[in-house]
Amino acid sequence: MNTVRPDIEAMGEAEGEHGADGSRTAVVDRLFREHNEALIRFLRGRVGSRNEALEVAQEAYVRLLSLDQPGAVSYLRAFLFKTAANIAIDRRRRHRSYDKVAGGQLFTEFSENRTPEREVAAEQTLRHLGSLIESMPAKCQASFVMSQIHGLDAATIASQLGITDSMVRKYVVRALLHCREQMDLERND
Q1: Which CATH class is domain 104-188?
Q2: CA 72 centroid distance within chain
């Protein structure tokens, strides 16, 4: 079974009466053993992939472990599922925001209506965009180029750069917004 189990022992013991052996980790460990597969199935229906469901589940367990007094929550299983559902919703919103920004055709406007004057202006604009891209931090620049120029998806870029899908999306959005902002500033000057 390929499940991601939170590193409960590394999280440390908590004080108080929270489980059979008196530890916060024991409570989360029991929840993991008894409900993890159901949680993964529940999340898979919401996020679409098992890997994403595993990431969301792990984040939910970490949040549960970070509660000051998990014993104060009367229904920990329900709290775990609700927390995981909220995380899944947040991720979906971030993905939609990324798709809106990344889906905008930043370069399309420069390829339409070619006249000699516009070609020169477009070449200057592309050179300026090139310098904007070159001025970005390395991973931001690589994420942007792989996404917008080479058309790679976030998962592929993430595996090549050794970062998370989420970070790739953040880098691409930052780069797109930066380029758009700089281009708009030049138009207004």
Answers
A1: mainly alpha
A2: 30
> What are the domain boundaries of the chain?
8-99, 104-188
Closest CA to 27 of 40, 38, 14, 37: 14
- Give the model's pLDDT for residue 8: 39
Neighbours of 38 (CB within 10 A): 11
DSSP state, 7? -
pTM over 0.70: no
Q: ∠ at Cα 73 (68, 2), nearest 5°? A: 85
DSSP class of residue 33 equals H
In which band, very low, low, confident or very high, does the pLDDT at 157 lie, cut at 50, 70 and 90?
A: very high
DSSP per-residue string spanning 96-152: HHHHHHHHS-TTGGGTSS--HHHHHHHHHHHHHHHHHHHTS-HHHHHHHIIIIIS--
Four-residue CA torsion sign, 125, 127, 128, 130? positive
Euclidean distance between CA atoms 43 and 85, whole angstroms: 7
- Give the whole-angstrom CA distance, residue 166 versus residue 149: 19
